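Reopening this one. Same input as before:
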Amino acid sequence: MIGCNLSELAVEVNGLGKCYSIEKAGIKGGKWRRLAHKLRFGEDESSKFWALQDVNFSVEPGQRVGVIGKNGAGKSTLLKIMSRVSYPTAGEVRIRGSLASLLEVGTGFNDNLTGHENIYLNASLYGMSRSLIAQRFDQIVAFSEIGRFIDTPIKHYSSGMRMRLAFSVAAHLEPDILLLDEVLAVGDMSFQQKCLERVDELTSAGKTLFFVSHSMDSVIRYCTRCLWIDGGKLRMDGDTREVTEAYVEEVLKVRSERTVVSIGAIDGPSTADSQHEVKAESTGSTVARETIEYRDGAELVSARIINAAGNKATLVSVAEQVGVELVYDVKGPGFYAPAIHVYCPSGTLAFAATYPSTNIADFEKGQPTRVKAVVWMPAHLFNIGTYSVSLVVFSPKEAPFKRYFSEERYLSFHVVESAIGEKSARGLMPRQFPGPVRPLLDWSVNDVER
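Same output, byte for byte:
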């Protein structure tokens, strides 16, 4: 990290690796027999599994770092090594300052003890003195909002209650570094808001946050920097939006920008049996597809999903408007109308839309030209998930409609949750809000006399 004093770093990870031995079939007996076999014949390389391999990064105090990747990529292994629950096979992790972690809901709790007793037990495991625990006990209980059940054994708690108590203890330790592994996914909206505010307090005071999650909207909301771990290796490290967009493009196969390049003479007339090459600019992948009827009248040049600033958008907040931009060549006189079909995450058609003019002359072109059409879909329309878009140019003058081209599921974009506290159609509903759309409607709720 250029210009940064190493003594000021909160976390340094150098050449970190963690290797596990996979037991193979055919070796009978207990662990001592397997150990004797290993000492005699050596360890087979095929029995080794590297959960982490040659991971390097450094973090300054106060940074909010998200950690993303597929299941088994090594995210939790990294946090366990940082928490000293597990130890590395290679490399090292340097931690400067105190560290508290929530790797699983209720880690360090004893089911047979009450919430009251577990606060003392859990906090003491992090090194807090008994007098300091007593001093902050009321704050911890008030934050958790389970004061009524504080003297009940936690084996009777729900997962949400356990998470509330665990987070409350960890958050009031005021550690220099806080590690969270998918724990906030259990809480309701109001408690998530409190947690975020508490995290804001900690990071604004110079505390460092590591947050592991499969939820891209959570990572975007909580973190300013993101690490993408893939197959035990650090695939990408950078701005949260850039890293999550690259991750979504590869893992969810989201294609927010594509360009059509003709094979052969690009400027020449196309024929009914000609072929074209479709290039996905986001990944560089190419596929071939045959032309369809009437493609000699109009042909798609490029298309992309855009945000309000006119830039390519792979991830879109539910609170943002999202645009579809398509560029196509008109090759002769005629009537050309653009349209889109939007498909919801389940694959069913959500809606179709075309240019809303009732004047047929608005669609008329008298000579070959290049056209750029942009359509905007309003904010607070889509639910969370991946949506795909088909692109169509047709003649509205003919019956049935004459299609010049129809590119099925050509573009896609992924919708993430809006920032906590921002106005949303979800309101106080749980995280799983049903349906493909969730429009923000005008409500009027008033008390009336009986």
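So the earlier flakiness isn't reproducible anymore. For the record, Residues 263-292 have pLDDT under 50 and may be disordered.
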